[in-house]
Amino acid sequence: MTSVQADPAPPAAPTSRRWRGWLLDGLSSQAARHPGPHGTPPAEHKGHSWWRVMCLTGVDYFSTLGYQPGIAALAAGLLSPFATLVLIALTLLGALPVYRRVAKESPNGEGSIAMLERLLPWWAGKLLVLVLLGFAATDFIITMTLSAADASAHVVENPFAPPLLHGANLWITLVLLAALGAVFLKGFREAIGIAVGLVGTYLALNVVVLATSAWQVLSHPVVIDNWWGAMTAAHSSPLAIVGVALLVFPKLALGMSGFETGVAVMPQVQGDAADTAAHPAGRIRGTRRLLTTAALVMSGFLLLSSLATTLLIPQHEFEAGGSANGRALAYLAHQHLGEAFGTVYDLSTIAILWFAGASAMAGLLNLVPRYLPRYGMAPEWARAVRPLVLIFLAIAFGITVLFNASVDEQSGAYATGVLVLMLSASFASTVAARHRRHRASAVGFGAITVVFGYTLITNVIERPDGLKIALLFILGILLTSFASRVHRAFELRAVQVGFDGTAQRLIDAALAAGPLRVIANEPDERDEAEYREKEYSQREETHIPDGRPVLFLEVTVRDSSDFTTDLHVQGEERYGAQILRVEGAGVANTIAAVLMQLREHTGQVPHVYFNWTEGHPLSHLLRFLVFGDGEVAPVTREVLRRAEPDPARRPRVHVG
C-alpha cells in the first residue's frame, strides 16, 4: 500500500500585497466601467427603458423633497409657494431646454463639461475642465453629506427612535456615510432595480401625504385665509410679493439638482436598433423623455409640497431645532397620518436619501477617471474604484464634521455646485447653437445663461460658504493634478504606435544593413540643405558608421497639453533622405515611443542620434512640461530608462 503525499500548499501572499491587490482591483479595466450606477455599461449591454433609468436620476432629484420644502420655508417664509413658482418656471423654461440640448450634443454621459472642453484648445481647455470638476465635486460630495445629514434628522425626530439617538445627528450621519463607502468598497453592482423600487415607493408615499394635506386644507379653509392675511400684511402689493419671490428664489436652487445626473446616466438608456456610436438617436430621444418627465413630476411635487408645508406647519417649526427643520413632509406625515405611517415614511425617506448619496458617489467615480488620468493629472491608481472611494469618503467625513451635519448650513454649498454646472451647461448650449447657426436657440440659451448667472451670483453673495468650499476643491484638484502631471511627465505616453506602408518600406530597407540608425531632426525648412547638413554633422559628431543608411525622425507637437495619444508614423522620401514623420504631445516621449515600437517591430535595438541644445536646464524643463519640447536628448533617455529597465534591450541614445 502506497500513500500519496499532497503537494505543500503555496505560501500565502504577504498581507501588504493582498491588501494592495484588493485595493487596486480592477485597475487594468476601463475607468468608466466601474461597478456604479453611472458607469458606462459594457458593449453587450442593451440598456434599460428610459423610465427605469429616470429612477437613477430620481434618487438624487426626487429625494430633495426630503429637505427642499423646509429650506424653501426658511428662505422665503410665507412667500415660499411664490418663490417655488419662480423655481419651477426656471426649471421648465431654463434647465430643461438646456439639458435637452446637452443630451443631444454630448450623448455618451460626459455632460456639459465635455462640451466646454471642446471649445478651448491647449491648456486653457484643461484648466477649465479642472475648475468645473471642482464645482462638480462640490455638488456630488455635498449631495452625499447633505442627504446623509437629512436622513439622520429623520432618524432622530422619529418618535420611536431610542433616546440615545437624540442629538446624535453627527454620529448617525458619519455612520451612514461609512455604510455608503462600505457598499462601494464591497462592489456596487446593478442599481436600476433598487432605484425603481425606492423612487416608486417614495413618490407613492408622498402622494398620500400631499393628498391628505390637501384634504386638511379643504376641510379647514381658514388656514388659507390666515396665510394670505399674514402674507399681505407683510407685503402690501402684488408687485412686492413678486419682487421678493424673485429675490429669494436663488436659495431654492438645489431643487434642480438632478439634471446633471440625468445626462450622466445616458449610457444606461436603451436606444434604437439603428443607433450608432456617432448618432445614438434613440438614446437621445429616451434621455429627453427622461429629463422632461422628471422635471414635470418634480415641479408638481415641489409646488404642492410648498403649499402644504406653508399652510399647515407653523413657521417656527422650520427653524433650527424645530420639528419640521429638514423634514417638513415627514412632519405632516406624522401629524396627519399617525406615527406608524409616519415611521414608514421616515424609513422610505432615509432609504432614498442614503441612496442619493450612492448615486452621487457613483457620479464622482464616473466623472473623475474620465478626465484626470487622460490628462496625466492623476496617478495610475486613480483608475481603480476603491482608492477613490476612500478619498471621497474622507472628504465627506471632513465636511460633515465642519458643518456639524447641518442641512441648512450645507444647502448654500450644494446650491453653488448645482448652479455652476447649470451655468456651464447653458453657456455650452448657447455656443453650440451659435456654431450651428440656430440664431433663435442661441438667443434663448443666452438669456437662460444670464438668469443662471444672476442666480449664482445672488446665491454666492448671500451664502459664500458654497464658493469657499468649491474653491478649496478646485485648489486641491489643481495642485494634485499638476503635481501628478509633473511626476508622470517622463512616462511612455503613447497608447498605440502604427506605421504606414511607406514607413514600413523605409524601415525594412534600412534594417537590411543592420540595426536602425535614427537621427532626431527638428523640421525647419525641410529642404535639401537641411537634411544634408544634419546627416553630415551627426556622422561627424556621433560617429555613425560610414555607409550605413539613416532614418530621420521628425516630431511635430500637436497639443502639448494632451497626455496619452495614438501615434501614426508616416514615411516620406525627400531629397534622397528617408524620413519618418509623426505628430505627438511631446517630442521626447514621442521619440521614445517610436523607438520602442521599432525595437518590437524589427527585433533589434535601434540607435538614435541627437545634438545638444543650448540654454538653461530649468528653462528647458519648463518648456518640456508646458510646450512638449525643451532639451530632448536627456529627456528621451530618461523616458526610455523608465520604460525599459533592462539596459541590453533599451534603445541606444547618442548625443553629439
What's the quick description here?
The chain crosses the membrane at residues 71-99, 120-144, 164-185, 192-215, 227-249, 290-313, 347-368, 388-407, 413-433, 440-461, 467-484. 63% of the residues lie in helices and 7% in strands.
Description:
The chain is of the alpha/beta class and 656 residues long. The protein is 63% helix and 7% strand. The chain has helices spanning 15-23, 50-61, 68-76, 80-105, 112-119, 122-157, 169-186, 192-219, 222-234, 238-248, 259-264, 281-312, 328-375, 385-402, 407-435, 439-462, 465-487, 501-511, 528-542, 587-602, 617-627, 632-643; strands spanning 494-499, 517-520, 551-557, 565-574, 577-584, 607-610, 652-655. α19 links the parallel β2 (517-520) and β3 (551-557). The termini are far apart.
Class computed from helices, strands and strand pairing: alpha/beta
Name the average pLDDT: 83
Shape: elongated
- How many β-strands, per DSSP? 7
What proportion of the residues form beta strands (DSSP E)? Answer: 5-15%
> Sheet with the most strands?
7 strands, mixed
Order of helices and strands: HHHHHHHHHHHHHHHHHEHEHEEEHEHHE
Count of alpha/pi helices: 22
Cα distance, first to last residue?
A: 77 Å
Task: Give unreliable regions as ranges.
Answer: 1-7, 28-39
In order across it, which strands form the biggest sheet? 1-4-5-3-2-6-7
| CA-based gyration radius | 30 Å
Helix content: 55-70%
Transmembrane segments: 71-99, 120-144, 164-185, 192-215, 227-249, 290-313, 347-368, 388-407, 413-433, 440-461, 467-484
Keywords: Membrane, Transmembrane, Transmembrane helix
Protein name: Amino acid transporter
